[in-house]
Structure formats: C-alpha cells, structure tokens
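=== Structure Prediction Worksheet ===
Name of assembly: unnamed complex
Input type: mixed (protein and possibly other molecules)
Chain count: three
Listed entries:
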Amino acid sequence: MSTRLATGGRLLNKSRAVSFTFNGQHMTGYEGDTLASALLANDQMLVGRSFKYHRPRGIVASGAEEPNGLVNLGLGGRFEPNQRVTTTELFDGLTAKSQNHWPSLEFDVGAINAQMSRFMPAGFYYKTFMYPRPLWKHVYEPFIRKAAGLGAAPKERDDDTYEHFYAFCDVLVIGGGVAGLQAAKAAADTGARVMLIEQTAHWGGRAPVDGGEIAGKPVDNYVDETVAALEAMDNVTLRRRMMGAGVYDHGYVLAYERLTDHAPDMTGPRHRLWRIRAGHIVTATGAIERPLSFAGNDIPGVMLASAVRDYVTNFGVSPGDRTVVVTNNDNAYLTAIALKHAGLDVPAILDARVLPTDSALMAQAKALGIRVLMGHGVSTVMGGKRVTGVAVCSQAGEGSILETIPCDVVAMSGGWSPVVHLWSHCGGKLTWDTAQAAFKPDVDKAPTGADGKAFVTAAGSASGALLLADVLSNADAAGQAAATSTGHKTARNASAAPEASHTPEAPMAPVWLMPQGAGIKLRSKAWLDYQNDVKVSDVQLAAQEGFHSVEHAKRYTTLGMATDQGKLSNINGLAILSDSLNQPIPQTGTTTFRPPYTPISMGAIGGEARGDVFQPIRRTPMHDWHDENGAEWEPVGHWRRPYAYVRSGESTHDAVMRETKNTRENLGMLDASTLGKIIVRGPDAGKFLDMMYTNMMSTLKPGKCRYGLMCDENGFLIDDGVVARIDEHTWLCHTTTGGAERIHAHMEEWLQTEWWTWQVYVANVTEQYAQIAVVGPKAREALEHLGGMDVSAEALGFMDWADGTLGGFDVRVYRISFSGELSYEIAVPASKGQALWDALMAVGAGLGVMPYGTECLHILRAEKGFIMIGDETDGTVIPQDLGLHWAISKKKDDFIGKRGQERSHMVDPTRWQLVGLETVDGSTLPDGAYASAEGTNANGQRETQGRVTSTYHSPNLDRGIAMGLVLNGPDRMGEVLTFPGTDGKEYKAKIVSPVFYDPEGEKPNV
Amino acid sequence: MSNIVSALNQKTYADGIAEVREIGLQGMITLRGDTASTAVKSAATDVAGVDMPAPNQVNCVDQRGICWMSPDELLVLCPYETVADNLAKMRKSLDGAHALSVDVSDARAVFDLSGPHAREALAKLVPVDLSPDVFKEGMFRRSRMAQVPAAFWLHAPDTFRIITFRSQAQYAFDLLKVAVQPGSEVGFF
Amino acid sequence: MLILTCPCCGVTGEETEFHAGGEAHLKRHGPGSTADQFEEYLFMRENPKGVHFERWRHVYGCGKWFHAARSTTTLEVYGTYAAQTHEPPKDLRDTISKKVPGWTWREFQ
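=== Predicted Assembly ===
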C-alpha cells in the first residue's frame, strides 16, 4: 500500500494539515502536497478508469505528463473536468471525483470492454459500426458517445473571472529548473529584460531530487541563491505557477498563470493568460521519462521511476512497500537508492542492459544490498487494481518466466525524452539523438522570426543535455546567446556556469519492447498510451493495415491524443511503428506538436470577454431612454437599436403594428443616430464622390441632398444613403448603420492607395451627432411647436437641409424621408441628443407622438418599395437588378463598379429583377422563400424563378406585402407565382409594383 | 446647459486596484491637413496653446493639447465650451489651405485610469509595451483596447487618459472595471 | 502572430492592430478595359511560396495603408514601405536579393 513516510517531504509544510474529499471520502494531506501525493498518502493509487476499456488506472507520473490521474474537480460554478492530480495543488476543502466509470470506481460495468479487448483493436469502431448506415445516427453513435468521453461537462456558469496581460521582454525563459535559472541569470547579467516562468509552484525542477552538487553545495542551495539573486535584479520578472503554453510567430508566447487554483478563497482572477512578445525565447522545459512497454504496464502501481523518487523525496510519500525497478539506464538506480534511504524495500532492479562492468550507480545500489539482474526485464506484471508482483524474464527472450517477485510498485524507466514541444510549436526542427534514443532540438533549424533569425534556443535537458554539469553550462550559454541576439552585450567569459558534480551514468540502451521477442499475448497487454488505451499490438496492426504515416497511425489508433497529447507515449509509439515498418525512427518522424503544452482553461482564453464585456455593444445617446421605455433590442452590427417599444399588455407584433399605423397617421420618432456620417472635404471631393457613388454627386448644390448608391469594383451594391452638400468643398455622406466604419475605410483605401494625389480629406463623424427622425403628417407641426428656424415647405423643401435652431438647440435639419411620410431628420451634438429627444417627445405629446423601432421602419420603407442594404442586396445584386437605373449616372466615364456592371453576366436580361409581391389571400409570404418554376435542374432540384427579399404584414394596407427578385419580373405584372414554404404550405403571390403605398409620392412632399 | 451630458456623466469606479473615471465633456477637434505645413501647425497650436508634438507624441496641459494622430491628422483638445469659437478661428487661419477641421467632442468618451496600478491594469487590455522605461510621459498611442479602438497617453505619472468612441463608452468603462478588479494586481512593472 | 512596423507612423505593433489587404501593386482597370485586363485586375492573384508583396492597413493606429514584403514560408518581413508607389523600392528589392538570391514576383526580381 502507499502511505505517508515519517520523514522526508522537502516541499511539505507538515505543520499545516489540509483536508479534502475524493469520491466523497474525507482525506487529509499537508500544505505543499499535490492532489496526487495526497491521494497516495491516503493509499488511493486507483484514480480512474481508462477511456476505451475502462481498465483501472493509477497514478503514473508526478508532473504535467500524467495520463491517468484525471479528476472532476470542484462543485457547481467551480466544477471542472479532466484536472490532473499531479499538477493540482492541494487546498483545504478540495473536492475531487474520479471519472469514466459507472456505477463506481471500484466496480465499473464498462470494464466488460476490457474483457472484450481482444475483439476491439485499433479501428474497431470504424470497421464495426459502418453498416447498416441508419443505425449509426440512432444507435451506434449515442451508445458510443455515452460510453466514451473524458469527464463531465460543467453545468453551471463559471463563478470565476479571468484576464489577459500583455507583456514584453528581451528574453523569456520558459522553465524554472536549474537550466532555466542559470539561463535567466546569464541573460539578466547582460542587462536584458528577462522573464522566467515556471509551471509548478517550485523553483529548481527535478534537479534537487536527483542529487549532485553545484559549486560544492547541494542543488537546493544553488536554487535558493539563484532565485534570490534574480529577485534582486530590476530587469528580471519571476513567475511561478505559469506555464509556457505555446510559442507562435515572431516571438509571441502564450503563458498560462494559475493564480487562485491553489487557494480558491483568494480574491481576483483565477487564471491570467499572458500574451508575451519576447525578443528571444529560451525553452528550459526539461525532459520527461519514458515508460517501458511490457505486459501489464498499466496496472495501478506501475509508475515512472522518477515519479517514485519524487513522491518519496518531495512529498514524503511511499508509493509502496516493495518496489521493483525496471530500467534500461542508470538514472533509474537513483530511485532504488532513494527508496532504500527512505527505509523501503527494493527486492530487485531489472536492468535490460548487459554492461561489461558495473557503473558507479550500480555499485552504489549493490552496496545498499539491492539485487541487480542485468539483461532482465518484466515478462508480465501481476495484479488487477493494484500490482502484486512481477514475472521476470530475459530481455533477449520471448518472455519465459524465470521467477516471480512479489511487490506493490514497479518503477520503470525507458530513458528520457527532452520536452521539445515549445521548440517545435513554431517550426523548430528535431534531430535524433542516438545516444539517448530521443528526439532533441536541431540547433541549426530553430524557428525564425520577423528578422529571419532564430528566436528560440533550447537549454538544459530540453536541449538533450541530461547530466547536471552539462545542463548548467548549456543553459548558461543559451541565456547569453539569447541576450546577445536581442542586442545586449555579455560581460562574461564563455561560460560562467558554476561547477557541478554528480554521479556519472553509463550509457542507456534503447528498449522499445520488453522482452524484445514478446509474442502477441504479451504485446496486446503492453500499453503505449494509457489514456487512450493504445497497445503495442494496436500500432503494429495500424502499420500492417497501411497506416504508415505517423499522423495517420495516430488518428487510426488514437495514440497520443486527448488531454496528455502523448507526452509519455509518443516516442514509444513511434519506435513500435518504425519497427513495424522496418525503418529507422527519424524516418518515421514525429506527429506535430501543437499548443497548448497542457490544456488551459476556456476562461483564460476568453479573458475579460464575458458577461457585459463579451462584445463591445454600441449605444446611442438615447439608449437608456429606449431601455426604460420598453425597447426590445435588435442587434445591428454591434449597435443595439430598438426593434419596437412594447407597452404593457402588448405583444411585440402589436407594438410594431401600432407604431407603423401611428407614424402614418400622426407622428413617429426614430433614433437614427446609428446611421453613418462621413465628412468628405477638399478641392477634389466632388470628383472623388463621383467615383464613389454611381450617381453624380459633384453637381449637387450646397443646401441640397441626394440619395446615392455605392458599389464595389464587381458592380455589386454595397451601401446607400443620403448625401448632403455642405459647402463648395464639403459633402456629408450618410451610410447605413452597419456601413459607417466600412465605408469610411473604403473611402480611405481609394484615397490612399489609388488616387493619392487628389486633395480630399475624409472624417467619420458618425458619433458626433444624435440624429432623430421626426416622421408623419404632424412632423412639421411638432417642429413648429419647438420653435426656431423656418421648416415650412417653402423654406425647407423636400431633399433640402439647413442649419438653424429648434427649441434652443443648434441643429442641422435634413428634409429626407425613408418612410414616404413628411419627415425631418434632426442632428444635434450627441451630448444634447437626449435633451432634444425629450423636447420632441414633449411637443409631440399633443400630436400623438410615439417612438418607433426598426421593424416599423422596415415596414414603412417596404410599403414604399425602398430597398434595404442586406435585404434586397446580398453581395451579388447590382443596382440595375433593383430598378435603380435612375441612380446610375450615364454621364460619368468611370465610377467604382462601372466596369464590373458592363460584364456579360451583369447585362444579362435574365437577371432577376425587383418587383412587389402581393399574396392572393392577404397572408404574409415567408422570408427568403423561392418561387418555383417548371422542371428540375441538373441536380434534380426544382427550378426556381425568384425569391422573396423583404416581407411584412402592412397594418396600413392590412395585408401581406413583399418585395422579391423575379425572372423578367417587371414584364410579368399581374402574374401569380407559387412560393413553397418550409412549413409545407404553398403561398401564391401576384407580381405588382414594389410601391404599395402612396405611389404618387404626395405624402412627403407637402 | 445642464442637459449636455457626456456619455457616462462622469461615472467612477474607485474600488479596484486603480480608479476608473469618465472625465466628462472634453472639447476635441479633428484637424486633417499637412502636419508639416506652417498653416496647419499654427492653426493647431494657436487654439491649443501648446507646442506642436512630435510624431506619436502628445502635448497636453489640463484640457488643452494636441495629439499626433497620423502624418496628416491631429486631435486638438480644448475646453468643451470653446470648441465652436476655436473651430471658427481655426478655419479662418486655414483659409485657402487644403485641410479639414471638424468638431468631434461628442463622438468620444474620455477616461482617466489612475493609481499606482494603472499601468498594469491597462496592460491587460492593450497590446502595447507599457513598461515605465518604454512608455513614458509625452507618448501618444492609438491601438486596440480589448475589442475597440482607443488612444491613450500618460496625462500624469500614474494616470492614463484614454479616448474611445462615445458609443463604446459603457463597454470601455465595464472593461476597465474588470481590469482593475480587486485582487488582480500583477506586479509586473 | 506577426509584428509589423508601420512606415507611416513608425509604430511597431502586433498583427491584431493591422488589417491585411491582399496583394500589392495591382493596376486598376476601369471602363474601356478588355475582359482579360479586368479579370486580371479583379481576380488573378499571385500565390507565391516565398517572397510576396502585400498591402496592410494600420487600422487600429494611424489608419494608413502601407505595403510589406514578406516571406509566405518563413514569415520573415523584409521591409515595409509607403502605399503611394507602383512598385517595390529598389533598396528593398536589393535587401531581399541578398537574403533570397534569385527571387521573382510578378515582373519584379
């Protein structure tokens, strides 16, 4: 059983006990524990079930590479699935639940899959559930989805807050082990701005556990001294609990800081996503120990050798009383020695190598009385939910059992792989290190930045230097090189790394399968990927079935997928695949390393953008008034415009009908502030606007307005609006609500990149003004009640504008109409918008004034056959399609879109044309419905001859009205078309003029 | 006139790691023209009463100042109630030159973000190096604040003055409020 | 995420402060142009592996358009220059030649 030792635990504060629950059971640990170490201290080796076969899974590792120890953490608004127990710091009140089992961790029905595993090899689902096809959707998929999946999705809104932070530095060192510390020191000594980040809560990495001396003192002393030295430097920032998540183009790095995960009662954001721009990046990300592939290597109690000594040394936890060490290298001997020193039993070290002489570590182990069996390995591990022993065999053989050794832990080591993820994210290439049997960064093929130069340097064991002295000198050089590349000068000699000493290690020997001649029975119990249940036999099958590319084999077998992304399984899987394909490992290559290094929270990615600030909602000066007066909101871009002002007891439809009738009969007011307003000024402004609009704008007289159309170079209509000429050199162009920024940018683009010699300046003054449309037969009377300027038909005719005062406000009044009624649009500076609105509401009170929203606006304009950008247009419609020939100047040699409109398809007489559509029975046509035609097209679909672009119930006409684009429409007046609805009904509508209301246009012209 | 209101009517949030305040109405004139020409320079400096700033710089004293917006654009600051007179004065002095001057006072909202943590609060929202050694008084930066355009400068050693569009004032205020939430000190600068 | 230096205001910013605007140095063909010329202008684009000239706008900054010479493979930015020109400046072309001997792009080399 695993238990807490009486002594040891360099990271613990044993004076502070911490209580937590696991699957409802109360447990205690110490401050400084991870959830993993605390679970082990409570003899909870079994922590979950595997993804596919639901096999029992125990803790394997002690860090970010852990594939098995994933739990549902927290409750309610703080619930989060798939949290790694090895990187979860223990805190008082922590609540964890294991995953992937039903009904319980101890007894799991899904484990029947494991009994069936022989019948469920790689590709099983693909092959089995192909036919009959209808069953997939209704039977297979729901069943598989229920059975598979990691963890549970949170049900409640996240209680926490998150944020981003933009940081800039010369040198970013990722990883706070001894390599990172030394690299940071070397870089900082040049005066460079340095950031050093470490994903755990502790500096020093694993060197303090592995022993050795730096400058004649224990590694811990070096760590403390270096951290203290760095902290004292103004040009250095040190952050713990912050992971380098991804390296991107031009020195951009995302780093994930966990602020309150270890102390949820702290105020402030939970996670902070750092968006760092670094001149140079040093990846001091260390190395990860590889498992060995032997039968039963997934049984709880089989752990990485380094993890076993981490638990003993860092946390004072014994993973078990009797540990068999199985290895292909010297490094794992440190585990045996650490266990012995802790007073635990190591019945044997099974070393797959055959060495001519004992190495130093081997001699040390033997001196401690440990039995070392050279050339031996594990045939199979015995046990179910916990290891009970190992069957020993010769590594060179096929697995014949030589003896069995009872034990409760197997500490395995297959060698070390440098963590090359961050090096590789942005294109750093790898090279195969034969001596370590691992990929390491190819220093000649680093990622390159904006200046074409390398911007990432690997340091320490991440670069392939595994021994302490090499790590330090390598890291020091990396730090100096990084600083130098950002223009800082080093004052040091080649290396100022302190001297380090450690026990020398004999060479490792690659072991990809144990024993090397293992038969199918053993191979199909030798796990490569614990999280995804991929075995040696699965990868071999994939190769056999033709999945030769490593990327294909990965997807076929799921090797290296999901939350751990194959941190433990990658190299072992590649080796098996290479062996199956009879090619060297470098030729097989690796799968692509993609950010983030370990999963980061969705909250951190979103940062501040949630709730009120999820998106930048734009508000007009009268927004609050609308809100207080029943506005239902319609999003128009980021603007919020009142859709209708709904009164108590009224439906939204009722409100729209009421507003529409009232505006025609009495007086309506619309907040038109969102319409774009762009000033265009200069000696060449007229010439410029003639290019921008299809109309002639240069001939517009000051004081007058003209409705204009804008197209793109394809000839398609992109915007419309009223243009007012202010003076000789100045025009004011109105755009649609969504068009202000777009059209402003469009104008700037042409001025800057095509006609840069023209003397024109433009300015977007959209938000300077609150603009209120006062609409209806009583509009003039309302303005006269306000008092001030003359708004009579004589003084201010239709399509005139004038500056003046109304009710004491300095205003600009445009006599324009988008409703077909007598209408004034009144602009005042935004700060006075609400005051003017209030004044107008007051004078309008006796005239039956009602504010109206965008839906009423739509009905009013549709009754008049006025087009709306985005309804009648969709990016493929030219003005000619809409009967707007009158707005296209024939006098101009050129305008944006003119050439495009001359193309054969644009002058094709069979282009659908705008007409009005009047339902035969007065009902309302469905929006977007197509008019059916005779016959079918090449795809067997019914032919069409038109479509609905706008459709409303008109309360003024008391019937459905619509506009649409119809084949030869204007020549087919009176013809009845059929529009099949998605509701199964067929709607009949007659082709009519699009102007339903006041066809003579008398109403606005009074 | 009491019925003239800025976007947020000087709304303030003072319970965070820095104070956020909408400063109320600030006169602003966009002046487009050849910023190297004497006519444009003096049109700006005469109204603002400060020297012409270098590119990407601002000269601002209280409510008067000049912000360098682009090679052909300045933002001239003056008290709100003096904008009409100043605009007239500016147009008169620019008479004959190709230039555009227009009142944008109401198109904007202006915030002060102040306190010892102002730098790190703003650095949560803008992709700009705000280290004290890099972003100094006198610098003027137009950039992106989370999802909206913003321009800002150090109006005082611990105070950023931030200009956004008026319609986005509430968003900007809410955003800054999140950035200064209690307990969110970064300790980077 | 790229970093670019706007040649108009001199600010170096990250990609999110800019807006990419497609291929640089297109020649506009308006009324009177042939169908081929118009097609060329509106639709035909370079898609090089390596040196490319493209348009960017400093949309969150000074608002100006400019040109950038950039590698589509390494993302190296060889330089940025004003938009008010019909071809890449000679000194920039020389700089690129030093780094990428033998490069070509449309009629330029």
